[in-house]
């Protein structure tokens, strides 16, 4: 396996990308604190460039390349925030970004990638089609693959979110992050445990895509076979690299239902007046579902993104 990233890689990533990313604010809501029975500090990555934390990892991956490597461009397959993030990072470095997207990807996502200068190739909506199409493009162009989550540079970049949060809020008892492929959670857990070994790192996952929960329970990685959740950013299985880091550093994983996610999403929109996508609301959902676990604690929550189709809201 590839060398596992360390906290020093997160520090290096921050030094590399801080001039390109937004230093996102931490917000709180006394009304939500009262409902939850704890003090919550929301790290608002919905205000990050491209509207999601994904820009951190993509930016670090792109700016880690040598000039010779970068000259051929970068490539990935993604129907979501990673596609837009990589396209923008490549645009800033003035290199090509080859993005393979399934033909049924949301129009808003296609427009975002195109707007950031990504060169889109559409394929059938299967993982095999995505991988085969990208493989052909990488071979013909010499572009460098940037994985959405299972890559050192991406994980280190995502870890800069927790690095900022723990600078902005000291004395946190716990930090909660959603988990899909595990890039954010692995980077968060690695950073948080280095800076404060006593902090609890807790993962939040939808019941309809609970491979991380099941893997954690069994002690071995169990890839997801089918998914059914409105949290479309959390449908991916853990990677081998992210699983290795998560197994070492994460204390607990809790799951929640889609109605739980909708309730939390509604609460954030209504009480905080900010837009978050379903995947971002999963962390608050598990806090509300397990109030006894978080009672009286100071809890950091990463609001992962705010990219929603306003014509298809779940409430």
TrEMBL record:
GO molecular function, one term: serine racemase activity
Keyword Lyase among UniProt keywords: yes
GO biological process: D-serine biosynthetic process
Keyword terms: Lyase, Magnesium, Pyridoxal phosphate
Gene3D superfamilies, alphabetized: 3.40.50.1100
SUPFAM superfamilies: Tryptophan synthase beta subunit-like PLP-dependent enzymes
Domain Tryptophan synthase beta chain-like PALP: 19-305
Needed cofactors: Mn(2+); Mg(2+); pyridoxal 5'-phosphate; Ca(2+)
One Pfam family it belongs to: PALP
UniProt family annotation: Belongs to the serine/threonine dehydratase family.
Name by which UniProt lists this protein: Pyridoxal-phosphate dependent enzyme
